[in-house]
Amino acid sequence: MKYLHTMIRVTDPAKTIAFFELLGLKEVRRMENEKGRFTLIFLSAPGNEAAEVELTHNWDPEDYGEGRNFGHLAYRVDNIYDTCQRLMDSGVTINRPPRDGHMAFVRTPDNISIELLQADGALDPAEPWASMPNTGKW
Fold first, then answer.
1. d(CA 104, CA 101)
2. Is there a smaller number of Cβ atoms within 10 Å at the N or the C end of the chain?
3. Rounded to 5 degrees, what are φ and ψ at 84?
4. Which of 49, 66, 115, 127 is catalytic?
5. What is the tally of helices (H) and strands (E) in the chain?
6. Is 54 labeled as catalytic in the residue annotation?
7. What is the DSSP string of 68-104?
8. How many angstroms separate the most distant Cα atoms in the chain?
9. Burial label, 78 (beta-carbon count in 10 A; 0-12, 13-18, 19+)
10. pLDDT tens digits, 60-109
11. Quick count: other Cβ atoms within 10 Å of Cβ 59?
12. pTM beyond 0.70
């Protein structure tokens, strides 16, 4: 058995791709299906191309709700504080800040939860993260 990809449905591919690019993922391929009226966009992290995220954009509008029944995608990052700061500087809400130097949660433009985990254990707690409250849900 080999893991292939995780699929999430998106309403605005450009916004969702921009979000994942902030995390460091890159688009690796795209497929347009006019008959089925959808686009598939595959992204992966450089050096980990076998683990893909498939963004499915159905051309006809649909309401996907908050996607909480999906759970979350998880990514290991080199520095959780730098990653969260880069996301915040770009307008992304940090729903669960990395108060412990180890774990944070954010959400995509379509409200899919993304868990960020510090590589190689936890960093020492640091401000402003250590005292930052949760925002919303994840």
1. 8
2. N
3. -65, -35
4. 115
5. 2, 8
6. no
7. GGG-EEEEEES-HHHHHHHHHHTT--EEE--TTSSEE
8. 53
9. exposed
10. 988 877 665 576 888 989 999 999 999 999 999 999 999 999 999 999 99
11. 12
12. yes
